[in-house]
Design brief:
The chain is mainly β. It contains one helix and 25 strands.
Length: 298
Amino acid sequence: MTISRLNARRLAVSVALVVSFVQAAPADDILIANAKSQPESLTVAPGGVLIVGSASSPFVYKVRPGSTTAEKFIDASTEGPGTFFFGMLADASSNTLWRCQLTPVPNTTPPQRHTALRSFDLTTGAPKIRWNLPGDSNVCNDFTIGPDKALYITDTIPGRIFRLSAGASTAELYLEHPTLRGVDGITFLDGVLYVNNVIFNRLYRIPVDATGKPGIPVDIWIDQPIKGPDGMRAANGKLILAENGSGKISALTVDGDKASVTVLKDGLDTPTGVEPAGNTIWIAERGAGKAVSIPMPK
């Protein structure tokens, strides 16, 4: 082999390695459409595809692994003026994307919204289920999948949790209580259901009796103030929490009815959603129009 051919081969190998690295490396600061796209929530689909909703437009975006470009995935512009999205959740077991869709009611004072729980094919974006939340005004905000494979849904105003059984198309009221007015993030940790309250800056445990009936939410004492608790997920035995009022992402270690806070990231512009994925925590930085990532704590 000549020296020129050898050098060419080495160059080709080097380029291939660089390309491979770029494709495998996660992008950690991604502008979603523009700085005003207001990504409220995000989720990660199989293969590392990032799916991000918009609270200022009728679009859901996806970002392929290694890319920094957000592509339109779902278009709900025919749903009515002002339609936007809150919660996003990928369920790989059923190849389903769950999302909360909100549409303002025209000419209402105070402002009202009609909201719907919707599901789509995680691969193609084809629509599946649509369930409209009951009442003249409501706020479908977020959801989680329980150990029973049911979907648990928060309705921030008036303050309710709904439960959609696996395979069902209509949800049922699971719990309504005055302390839930402002309920936002929801997740299971070690089989126990936790919710937060974005209005009153609280964290609650939802107790369940022997028959599976939920009881009055139990206030969890937190060792330092949280401000604007929003999206919340469980990972590595902790609650991972976005604080939209303080610009922080925190890890909460729960011990009975107490919790200690460890700040993982601060200085963010209105973080509203979190999604643990392997060694990474993805963050919806709504105020900056971005999806950003930080390492998962040990």
